[in-house]
Design brief:
The chain is an alpha/beta fold and about 675 residues long. About 45% of the residues lie in helices and about 20% in strands. It has 21 helices and 24 strands. The strands form five sheets. A seven-stranded parallel β-sheet has the order 3-4-2-5-6-1-7. A six-stranded parallel β-sheet has the order 8-13-12-9-11-10, sandwiched between helices. A four-stranded antiparallel β-sheet has the order 15-14-22-23, covered by helices on one side.
């Protein structure tokens, strides 16, 4: 067993946990919160009869990371540890796994599913667990799965049901919850404490040791002036104005400034309005305006050529799916201006000054023979790809020895990284074959990433929690934390606000810690009772919403061409997450795409994409999935359809928003219906 020694500040923050109190450990990124949790788990296992420790994480890749890097080295020789995620077979008999193990490390969704599942081999009770650890516990709020688990805990606590597990939360910042005054920030911290039924602890006696072990980087605002001229952006805005005039914006509907997130929100609502009213002209114009707005946002952050390419890619697809005069106008407008846009995008005299500033920022830390590591945080997967391409094709940066790669979250999409790709990228970064990660927020918290000399926030508008997480990545000696932003722009303003909110978080936590035990308990109990009441009301309303109408009275329409293609009664729910169409007639409404998704799990695998085959519509609806090697089922995304209901036409962003409850999929019934000869 590897020696498990703690620094003085770590010993201080675990003291109350060793007395079996529920606590939240508040330490900065790099402060060794996970190591402290391992220490608590070890002492708990040594002193508790029939101990069962469950460690919860909020991202799949953290399961193996915590298992291999922290818990197994220190606990493995004497205790049985099992990592469980959605990608492992053990999730299907979680109850048995917990029964046979000392420590289980899993995604929170796995535990929640086991709490809800009544089958003996999968089911667990909270009373089966003696210590429950929440990694990144600031996510225990609202509808998050952490909070759903703790919701079960709080209900049992208030009913007097025992035993319940000891709770240990880990966070670098609970944040202020959007509050900007101390009183409201205190309310937010108390709410997090109530949600986790825990007090929050931090170091008091060893603050100087913590500061020495986890030094803060030097913060630099790399500010650029607004570009003097932007003919490319101006031309996009002129084209958008032509679309505004063509579609006739409904009375009383106001579109805010082009090139902003607010404008994007406006045109999203406008598209929904067009779908609901059956006005395809309005819906399609709004859809295209969103693409132009995206191009403006890209133009503000990345290269003009990146903005142009995003439009070109969109219209390459749209030119093959023209349905009516609206499409003719919108596609024709782009094609008529395509050559001029391309020329403007290629004029280096008007290139985005932020790119030049980013280059100089990187060159401060990188150079021939210089050993540096850095991370550039950007907003979207698309922006990370564009920035990586820029680095690879920038001779100055290549001569400086920069070896960059993308790091984004894993997911089901075609352009997403797999978990193995994430692991390989981080390994190469640690070993030095890569020295610059261009990352989305996935690298802000949790990932085991080596100390960096430079962290750059580029084109980001995030809260104080994300800012503190990112700051904590710059932990090497004399490291720098850079904010590349336009003078007086939104990013600079947000960063300054976040600095104030970080300070406010500390003050709020101090206020909570100063409360007497009686005063603290009184506030916590009141918040917990209120949360249980609100949860029951919300669940009642959701049940009412989901049963507002019958499934067979709802028709699904293609969101692009409005053709009716299925009934709500054709939908089945597979494994409580996949919505599939079982009616064989549905197949005549779609065509199979060529693009295949490389996604495979124990019981199912993804196949080809499916698209509407009404004329030249071609809207992507989802993909075919093969279930248990037999059933080939169209798996659809509800956002790609409109719903015709007895109350009128509506749209739904997620399946929980539909006004009926889909039936569960029965594999046996499916086989009987589709292979009747086998059941004679």
């Amino acid at each position: 067993m590897v020696d498990l020694e703690l620094y003085g500040y770590q010993e201080e923050v675990v003291e109350r946990a060793l007395q079996r109190e529920n606590i939240i450990i508040w330490l900065p990124t790099g402060g060794g919160k996970t190591r402290a949790a391992v220490y608590v788990a070890k002492k708990h296992l040594e002193t508790t009869s029939k101990a069962k420790v469950v460690v919860l994480v909020n991202k799949v890749h953290l399961v193996d990371q915590h298992y291999n890097k922290e818990f197994k080295p220190h606990l493995g020789p004497n205790y049985k540890l099992v990592p469980v995620s959605g990608e492992s077979d053990t999730k299907d008999f979680f109850g048995k796994v917990l029964q046979d193990s000392h420590v289980v490390i899993c995604t929170a969704q796995i535990l929640y599913n086991a709490l809800m599942n009544k089958e003996e081999i999968q089911h667990v009770e909270l009373s089966d667990i003696t210590l429950l650890i929440f990694d990144e516990c600031h996510h225990t709020h609202k509808e998050g799965v952490y909070n759903k688990i703790m919701g079960c805990y709080i209900e049992k606590k208030l009913k007097g049901e025992r035993p319940l597990p000891q709770i240990l939360g880990l966070t670098a910042s609970p944040g202020t919850g959007g509050a900007k005054i101390l009183e409201r920030a205190v309310d937010h911290v108390l709410q997090i404490c109530a949600n986790l039924d825990s007090a929050i602890v931090s170091t008091k006696n060893y603050a100087s040791e913590l500061k020495e072990k986890v030094p803060r980087p030097m913060k630099i605002f790399d500010i650029v002036e607004k570009r003097p001229e932007d003919p490319f952006g101006d031309h996009l805005k002129w084209m958008m104005q032509l679309i505004h005039e063509y579609m006739i914006i409904p009375p009383g509907f106001r579109l805010r400034e082009c090139g902003t997130q607010e404008y994007e929100a406006d045109v999203v609502l406008l598209e929904q309005e067009g779908v609901k009213k059956g006005e395809r002209l309005l819906a399609q114009c709004a859809l295209h305006l969103r693409q132009y707005n995206d191009a403006l946002l890209i133009n503000d952050t990345l290269r003009m050529s990146d903005a142009y390419s995003s439009l070109e890619e969109f219209y390459l697809t749209k030119s093959q799916t023209e349905i009516d005069a609206t499409d003719d106008f919108l596609v024709g407008l782009f094609q008529e201006n395509q050559r001029e846009l391309k020329q403007l995008a290629g004029d280096s005299r008007n290139e985005n000054p932020k790119m030049f500033k980013l280059e100089s920022t990187l060159l401060r830390q990188f150079g021939p023979g210089v050993q540096s590591r850095g991370i550039v945080f950007s907003k979207t997967r698309k922006s990370t790809r564009c920035l990586n391409d820029w680095v690879l094709n920038n001779k100055t940066l290549q001569d400086a020895g920069i070896k960059a790669a993308i790091l984004t979250g894993a997911g089901n999409g075609i352009n997403n990284m797999t978990q193995n790709e994430q692991v390989d990228t981080i390994r190469n970064f640690r070993q030095g074959s890569l020295n610059l990660l261009i990352s989305t927020s996935v690298a802000e918290e949790g990932l085991d990433i080596p100390e960096c000399n430079l962290v750059v926030r580029y084109g980001l508008l995030t809260n104080e929690i994300a800012q503190q997480q990112a700051t904590g990545r710059a932990r090497a000696a004399d490291s720098q934390y850079s904010v590349v932003a336009q003078k007086g722009g939104r990013e600079e303003r947000r960063e300054l606000i976040n600095e104030c909110l970080e300070e406010l978080t500390g003050k709020a936590i101090a206020k909570v810690q100063e409360m007497s035990l009686q005063q603290f308990d009184k506030r916590i109990n009141a918040l917990q009772k209120e949360a249980v009441f609100c949860r029951k009301v919300a669940e009642s309303r959701q049940r009412e919403k989901s049963s507002r109408t019958t499934a067979d009275s709802v028709k699904l329409l293609c969101r692009n061409c409005f053709k009716s293609v299925a009934s709500g009664s054709d939908i089945r729910l597979v494994e409580n997450q996949h919505h599939v169409i079982i009616n064989p007639d549905f197949k005549r409404h779609y065509k199979v795409g060529e693009q295949k998704m490389s996604l495979s799990f124990k019981d199912w695998e993804a196949g080809c994409t499916i698209n509407c085959n009404n004329g030249s519509c071609n809207l992507k609806w989802g993909y075919e999935m093969k279930y248990k090697q037999i059933a080939l089922l169209p798996n659809i995304a509800i956002k790609n359809f409109a719903l015709e209901t007895p109350e009128g036409r509506i749209t739904a962003k997620q399946w929980k928003d539909v006004p009926f409850t889909p039936e569960s999929f029965s594999f046996e019934v499916y086989c009987q219906d589709n292979f009747p000869d086998l059941f004679d």
